[in-house]
Amino acid sequence: MDAKSFRLLMIGAMYENGGNTTHRFLDGHPQMFVYPFESQLGTRLVTDHLTSTFPVKYRWPVFPLDGTPAGDYRMIIDEEGKVRSRTPFVSKFRDYPFGLSDDDRQRRYVEFVNETGRSTGNNVAAFFRATFEAWTDVQRSGREVVYVGYSPIVVVDAERILRDLPNAHVLHIVRNPWSAFADTSKRPVPLSLEDYLLGWVLNQQHALMFKALHPDRIHVLRIEDVMADPKKELGSLCGTLGLEVTDTLSRPSWNGRTLEQVYPWGTIRTPTLEANRATAMELSPSQRDEIRVRAGSLLDDLDYRTFI
Hints:
single chain; alpha/beta; Rossmann fold; five-stranded parallel sheet; two-stranded antiparallel ribbon; 13 helices
């Protein structure tokens, strides 16, 4: 299985926009290998005009021309996965069983790349394949055909993903900017309103542009629509990918285990429309008005003009 045949659905979303939530709704699908955490594929070699705005761990990876498979593996940041594997006692996922040796995964990764050759696409394919080969207590149906990853803001690299993996699709999730900013404000060191809206706007602009350029492989969903009827919205996506529509799409889970709340995978604890709107109303009137101005015409493009 090399880059040409590898099937990947890569999810992207601005912070607190519902990427983790959507990822968890897909988790139990019997035809999907769903990565257990954020698949932070970026490397320190990512350098471009967006590097100052978005952390490189969330970007599509760049590998050195003179590298080795083992060296490439170590460059992939994958912070959540490697921390949970190597130092589980400091991981926010420490209460969730996860039988994976990172050293074993690296060995399998090197074996795969030695078979396919080094390239960005082959390296990414090997990373996902090695994860599910090394994960000893993963729940599998035996019918999986599509790998699913999630990394915040990765939609800005959507064209690179499509180029490197000819069978890949990108799913971008968007959430209204009021609820999203209210949730990000709860972080220990939150972004300012102006910085957060800059990232939100850049994400939606890239998503809509790439959707227009590649309508068959770029998909854009509002998290509000997923919350309203996850089986319908995600089932439509599954149909596009040639996959079954299953009842598992109706509930978030991790490794097949139903989650009562999505946290700690994301700040959206309860993925309901009522909770989503209540979160937006936590902002002051002046904050809501400023967000409306900074989001601009994207509110019309994404049908959020009358959200609040």
